[in-house]
Amino acid sequence: MQLSRLTPLFSSTSNLELWIIGNELSVNVESLVLVTCSNSKGSQSVLVQGQRVTTVRPGDFVQAPKERKLSDSEKFRTQIYRAYVTIGYSFLAILMAFSILSFGGVVKARVVLTESMEPVISPGDVVITTPVSRKEPVIGDVVTYIAKRFDGSPVGTFTHRIIEGDNDSGFVVKGDNNPAPDVQRPKYEDMAGVLLFTIPFIGNLMTPRSLAILIPTLFGIWLVVDALRKND
User: Are 22 and 132 members of one domain?
Assistant: First the structure.
């Protein structure tokens, strides 16, 4: 069968001839063949059914899938899953960045246990400090220093504010909530770091009791979110 309807698409000198050869077309009149030819001038399609040739548009024979519309419950589950994934990856990125900086000695984290710096810093807050070699403390800065006895043995670590003094004679430090300055006048060699910023409350989650509650809770949330994801 020669498909002469495709010939006008091309120049008269091209002498286009397209033949479909086969016994099935002549026997089975229900057989359908879609033929499309194209060049720089455009394209042309014909539908061959038995001995019948009809000019058609290819788009008429492509059935686009129906747009899937999400129900309100599906949208809610999807939003929860995306939020959970975003928070998880963000927390992981922050944790990795902090681990790298902490390993390199750039920053250190400590949990505040007393009320001496309230209301600026409360018990359970985490203070992030950097060594004095990276940030020289000045009056008004909050520093973490190692308190010592008169014999030089360490007592503990305190995070208080510098209110006066210098490194030669020692700094006068005081907790914002304390009535009087500290007895010790720490110098650079006594300071573990200068405060960069504070993360509220998170230190309360680092106790054994809090972790015993938090870990199963997070695991349960993960199971619920994973189940919602599979239902999608």
Answer: no
Whether 151 and 92 share a structural domain: yes
119 alpha-carbon distance from chain centroid = 32
With a threshold of 0.85, does the pTM exceed it? no
DSSP secondary structure letters along 172-204: EEE-TT-SS--S----GGGEEEEEEEEE-SGGG
> pLDDT tens across 171-216, in order?
999 999 999 999 999 999 999 999 999 989 887 776 666 656 766 7
10 close to 16: Cβ distance less than 8 angstroms: yes
What is the number of domains present in the chain? Answer: 2
Q: Tokens 């397209």 map to which residue?
A: 18
Q: Which domain holds residue 13?
A: 4-61
* Token couple for 79: 């939003």
For the record, the structure tokens of 17 come out as 């001839």
> What is the tens place of the pLDDT at every residue in 44-72?
777 777 677 777 776 666 555 555 666 67
Would you call 115 exposed, middle or buried from its count of C-beta atoms within 10 A (0-12, 13-18, 19+)?
middle
d(CA 207, CA 20): 81
Residue found by looking up tokens 């992981």 in the block: 92
